Amino acid sequence: MNTTTAKPKSLFQKVWDAHAIRKLASGQTQLLIGTHLIHEVTSPQAFGMLRDLGLKVLMPHRTFATVDHIVPTDQMFEPFADPLADAMIKELRRNCAEFGITFFDRSTGHQGIVHIVGPEQGITQPGTTIACGDSHTSTHGAFGAIAFGIGTSQVRDVLATQTMALGELKVRRINVEGKLETGVYAKDVILHIIRKLGVNGGTGYAYEYGGPVFDSFSLEERMTVCNMSIEGGARVGYVNPDQKTFDYLKGRPFAPKGSAWEDAVVRWTSFRSEPGCHYDDVVTFDAAEVEPTVTWGINPGQAISINERIPTVEDAPEEEKASVAEALAHMKLTPGAAIKGTPVNVAFLGSCTNGRLSDFVEVAKFLKGRKVAPNVRAIAVPGSQGVAKLCSEMGLDKLFEEAGFEWRGAGCSMCLAMNPDKLVGDEVCASSSNRNFKGRQGSPNGRTILMSPVMVAAAAVTGVVSDAREVFGT
Amino acid sequence: MPLEKITKIVGSAIIIPGDDIDTDRIIPARFMKCVTFDGLGEFLFYDVRHNETGEPTDHPLNRPEAKEAKFLISGNNFGCGSSREHAPQAIYRFGFRAVIAGGFAEIFFGNATTLGMPCISLSRSDLVDLQKTIHAEPSTKLELDLASKTLAVAGKSYAVQIRESARDALINGRWDAIGELLDALPKVRETASRLPYMNV
Q1: Interface contact B181-A30, CB threshold 8 A
Q2: Which region, left, alpha or beta, applies to residue A100 given φ > 0 means left and ψ of -120 to 50 means alpha?
Q3: Measured distance CA(A445)–CA(A441) in Å, rounded
Q4: Chain B, 13-52: which have a CB under 8 Å from a chain A CB?
């Protein structure tokens, strides 16, 4: 093999090439999915289709299950009060038992949001392909995996064939240069990127994030950014693996052990994008321009920095006027007014975007000795039983409770309200989650303002949307 | 597994106005507490079809003629957000057979195509023009021809855009890939055997 003439390749291209089975008649590629993650909401119909077609799970050892969306975070026993939710967890148990799939059930102590459990267990690894019937699967790209959110028919395809049909994506390199100011977080970076590139700007692209800000980010911060790639329309987002990636994975239950570890690190390193590789697009941001960012509308791209004013219909570009008007009407916000000072009813800390140990540790620094405002209902929901255990060992559960937060069990909770955690009426929620769609948090009139965990804490203690840097004196 | 070759779709249309219609709006998450897709059609756009006490509103989907419609028309970036196949399933099970928009979110597009429900894009000006025609006469018949990539409406013909792989799959009856994917299992096993992480 003559390697000197080989064109430099991006990580995306290398992973794609290593997993491509063949071209299909339609022109799509049959792509091998090395790791399949499933949960209770989008898998039962897929197992039903398998049974209807008389098919088996091809590689049961490459599918891993957990339960997250429907779990009541304030009820630790079963049956669940909601019979539909109870039927769903039982169905997942039945399917995993019948087809021989590892299930991180609640009794294992490893249950949690699927995008938190995969990395925590060391299942998420560089240079791999991952699929899950959940759009936030892009989270796993933080490790240099190519991770796709898929629909239920594709869950069926992956169960039956360990492959799926997919068109190749273009790659957009997103550099964030410089250094973030104190009080500006990974969440602000991704809200800023989506605001600038648009909620459909990433359609057809994989986002490769890089530059000094990503080099300095922890794996958990990289996960926060990759998680929300889909909110920018990009199905896949990833960061090239580095020493931090390997350090994070070392010793985790499903990480390679012994001599296999050294081999794995060599292989993982080989997947990194090479200098001079082709990108279909390159976008560069200056970290100094990223401020604590909050949404004012009904999609994650409708965001402003905390000290900006709420947009007006008049100032919006022609093609956006209708959307801006609809968003302002739903949010009941005053055009042209400051977003700072908007009263909130609920503060939600958690989700696959910001429900990891580092999120609670960072908030705890500022929450210690402070109290949630009397008119605010505040809940803190660790993303997994593993995160809950670590928080508890550090005394964070007590600290949050003393501040007036309810400390809950692991699950998706109020991010999407498929469980009892919901907004009521037109409540305003300061939320560390990923979507501010109409009705997303369980009430058709509910109003969601997305922000970083520390900004949620600032809103919780003041009762209004606030600049955390002012509230906490950072 | 022979599949229907989907080339022509003829019928009336319902307009869901707005850009960035997300899958939470198409089917709110609380209706996904189910283990089959049966009956999802009745929850399609539930929160705008019902008022706070659960009574039906005058939303176009609540009108009797909606049951006959074959085309759902919306704005840009239709189906953004969650990967839930429940969204295209609900649209299909309501009775629609194609979605026309300014553009589609990636996962929604793939999910809908796999159900044999074409997602076709029109230019902004054609979309506005089409919506005007339908507003003026809601029973207007649309005729989509994927072979010629045209949409014929009231004597006009619009050029439609659809990703070529999806068009090919629809018109040749291979929009559900499972049969084709199963054909390659020996190669799948062989490729997997060369990837250490798949062999632990």
Answers
A1: yes
A2: left
A3: 9
A4: 17-20, 22, 24-25, 28-30, 32-37, 47, 52
Q: For helices A44-53 and A83-99, what crossing angle results, to 10°? A: 50
Q: Which of B1, B55, B78, B82 to mutate to test the interface with A (most CBs of A within 10 A)?
A: B82
Residue B120 is classified by DSSP as E
Q: Among the CATH numbers 3.30.499.10, 3.65.10.10, 3.20.20.300, 3.40.640.10, which is that of A293-471? A: 3.30.499.10
CATH of the domain at B57: 3.20.19.10
The residue among A97, A131, A90 whose CA lies nearest residue A114 is A131
The residues spanned by each domain of chain A are: 9-290, 293-471
A interface test, pick of B22, B35, B167, B190 with most A CB neighbours within 10 Å: B35
Domain assignment of residue B152, given as a range:
8-175
Q: What is the dihedral of CA A298, A300, A303, A306, to 10 degrees?
A: 100
Instruction: Reply yes or no on domain A9-290 having CATH 3.30.499.10.
Output: yes
Split at pLDDT 50, 70, 90, the class of A115 is very high
Report the domain count for chain B.
1
Instruction: For residue A1, name the pLDDT band (cuts at 50, 70, 90).
Output: very low
Q: What are the b/e assignments for A433-460, b being 16+ CB within 10 Å?
A: bbbbbbbbbbbbebbbbbbbbbbbbbbb
Position A202 scores a pLDDT of 97
Determine, for residues B85 and A42 on separate chains, whether the beta-carbon distance falls below 8 Å. Answer: yes
| ipTM for the complex shown | 0.96
Flag whether B190 is in a domain. no
